[in-house]
Design goal:
Distance between the termini: 43 Å
Radius of gyration: 17 Å
Shape: globular
CATH superfamily: Ureidoglycolate hydrolase
Number of strands: 15
Number of domains: 1
Order of helices and strands: EEHEEEEEEEEEEEEE
Number of helices: 1
């Protein structure tokens, strides 16, 4: 018989995704406001360079493009583990208008529950996680497809950790 008392869930507030708030973990991908791009294709398109280096080549890695078909998660959602990819970035871009929650912690040692931050996208934003950034698996608020760009290699680049105490995401703003 286990006499240990169940651990109380630590609440984690979800904040809107902004480039400034997300900067310690990576880059927010969104169409820039105004006309900051450059005209291409004879002036029929405007190009916006969002991330100059996805950092996918470490230790013989190569860029890999995948499609994740995500089911909508139910909230409240309990977060008990995190993962990281030490050798490369990981990018998530929704196909269509699809909100998702990204739970992150700074690169380094396995995070304590109090080190986590949570962001919800507006449905049109994507993110690029910096190498080594701890994150939870994709938490789709809206079911659908996501393009994922990550480091491909013969060896697996995914460290997992179990949190010392579970964290709960109560809800996501509509």
């Amino acid at each position: 018989m286990n006499d240990a008392a169940p651990q109380a869930l630590v609440p984690l507030a979800v904040q809107p995704l902004t480039p400034e708030a997300f900067a310690p973990y990576g880059t927010v991908l969104a169409a820039p406001a105004g006309n900051k791009g450059r005209l291409i294709n004879g002036g029929n398109a405007e190009r916006f360079d969002l991330v100059g280096d996805l950092q996918l080549g470490a230790q013989g890695g190569r860029p890999m493009l995948a499609l994740f078909r995500a089911q909508a998660r139910r909230f409240p959602h309990e977060v008990t583990e995190m993962e990281r990819h030490a050798l490369g970035s990981q990018t998530f871009v929704p196909l269509g208008e699809r909100r998702f929650v990204i739970v992150v912690a700074p690169a380094g040692e396995a995070p304590a529950p109090g080190a986590l931050a949570a962001f919800v996208t507006d449905g049109l934003q994507g993110v690029t996680l910096g190498p080594g950034t701890w994150h939870h698996a994709l938490l789709a608020v809206d079911a659908g497809d996501f393009v994922v760009v990550e480091r491909g290699s013969e060896s697996i680049d995914c460290d997992m950790c179990t949190l010392a105490a579970p964290v709960t995401i109560a809800h996501c703003s509509d």
